[in-house]
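wait is this the right file?? whatever heres the structure
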């Protein structure tokens, strides 16, 4: 049996972010010492429901303070990012975590997060599908081009490349589908 920790980084009383992060880091260090398999980091915006607007950034901090625990995102809300930039961030995070990254990707569900970023939640499914295809191409191909409804990309190569090949393990959540692709929990 494998055990993991899920960190929402919630602050019901809207307390100081430093306290929330320090507590989460202490939990991560303890989970690592106890031999837990992984730690998963949520993404949320514009509320105290979760002080985690960028789980990849926090993954790097956790990796710096732990030795072996795998670090996953649960989830990066894919339609909120430009997929090419996110592919670079995934590769960089994989490098900086020394190949301990697991990437959970999802469509998102909180309309107010989309609205505040000028996006329509109703477009999240096709945006997710296009962005996922671009990320997979960017992380696995030397160079590629892409023509879609939401993204049109000329010949492109990203740097750095991820440590894990062909890319860090992906866990996809879209609607009620959960698709596990080479994740720590298979």
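ok assuming it is, sequence goes like this
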């Amino acid at each position: 049996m494998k055990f993991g920790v899920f960190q929402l980084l919630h602050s019901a009383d809207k307390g100081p972010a430093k306290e929330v992060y320090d507590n989460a880091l202490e939990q991560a260090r303890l989970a690592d010492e106890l031999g837990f398999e992984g730690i998963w980091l949520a993404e949320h915006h514009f509320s105290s429901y979760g002080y985690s607007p960028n789980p990849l950034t926090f993954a790097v901090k956790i990796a710096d303070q732990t030795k072996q625990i795998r670090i996953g995102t649960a989830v990066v809300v894919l339609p909120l990012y430009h997929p090419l930039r996110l592919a670079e961030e995934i590769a960089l995070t994989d490098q900086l975590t020394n190949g301990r990254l697991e990437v959970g990707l999802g469509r998102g569900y909180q309309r107010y997060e989309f609205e505040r970023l000028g996006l329509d939640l109703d477009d999240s499914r096709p945006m997710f599908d296009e962005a996922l295809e671009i990320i997979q191409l960017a992380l696995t191909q030397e160079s590629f081009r892409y023509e879609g409804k939401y993204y049109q990309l000329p010949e492109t190569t990203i740097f750095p490349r991820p440590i894990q090949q062909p890319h860090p393990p992906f866990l996809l959540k879209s609607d009620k589908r959960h698709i596990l692709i080479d994740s720590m929990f298979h």
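The first strand starts at residue 4 and ends at 7. so i think its the right one actually
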